[in-house]
Amino acid sequence: MVAVGGVTGLYVQITPNGAKTWILRMRIGERRRDFGLGGYPTVTLAQARDKAREARAKVESGIDPVEERKSARARIIASQRRGLLFSEAVDRALVSKIDAFRNEKHRKQWRSTLDTYALPVIGHMPLQDIAVHDVLRVLEPIWATKTETASRLRGRIEAVLSWATVSGHRTGDNPARWAGNLKELLPAASKVAKEDNQPALQLKDAPAWYAELKDRQGFVARALEFLALTAARSGEVRGAQWDEIDFEHRLWIIPASRMKMQREHRVPLSQQALDLLAALPRLDTNPLVFPAARGGPLSDMALSMLMKRQHAASIEAGGPGFVDRVTKRPAVPHGMRSTFRDWVAERTQYPGEMAEVALAHRISNAVEAAYRRGDMVEKRRAMMEDWAGFLRGREAEATEKGATSELQ
User: Fold this and answer.
1) What are the residue boundaries of the Tyr recombinase domain, all occurrences included (predicted)?
2) Which residues 6+ apart lie within 8 Å of 161 measured at CB?
3) pTM above 0.85?
């Protein structure tokens, strides 16, 4: 540090490699400060002296030039952050949420909905500029036709904007918030979601559909049959592994990691389901119960396409096809869960809450206390046997046994 004169406290700092920087050393309040004025030769001696005089004048006026500089830098950084685009924020928010995803598929779904619906509309917008009407431009085109997707999309936009606020990239209220915000502008998802329900097989058509399915060969047909017998979700069936099947206790135990509600689910297996499993070939190198031709799990589309072919075959044979009673759309695999639920309500005396447990739905605490104790496996076992009998065309017997089981 070499004093250069002209202004009290002005020094030139010379580093071991010969670089030179102007430093103003002064006392501000009770602290000694070293205030950088720039490097030589970019800043000349004359310019350094002018900057030093200006800094000392601020100190005499009660201004700390060091803190003033820090505040100016903070304002610049904040301004730059608020200039971050929504498309850029999606990437960063996704990284921060990586641990929240159950699996890679969930992460891709989270990103895919934003890429498909949000980015074309607001992806180019700075985060600070996004308002309620911009979020509405994303949601309104699909709110009535793809209600479930739109509802999830709203939540994901809200999550990105919430991350942006906490990270300092925007200020103010979250325009994607539902309560007290979008709730006043969009109809409740529950009121329009009924139009978006998965087409379900009608009860009167179920035995004929099941008989047609049993005549078909291959892992896809058996997976769809097992799905029907267990009233399980497609993903649960397609990912089923042999070590989840307890033949001794006649149970299929699905681990929490593969369940939508992140809770282990025990499915009592009917004799028909056990016979199906016993007849399947086991591949030594593949743990999957229903493997695809290339070794991995079957695709959801494979099961859906099989149901479409069944519908088409019925039409070609002069039949009515297999369609949803309300929408008249061809039934899909996920709709079998609704068919099972309708069967319990309309053709048996089993409690509706027992069906909800069988479907692994989230139910109220009061009901949970009464019905989830021990999973009611044995009572559900009778229900699943009756359901298998109904699919085989033994409706009268199923109804009679359902009433008897409930009385017991």
Assistant:
1) 196-384
2) 89, 127, 130, 170, 174, 175, 176
3) no
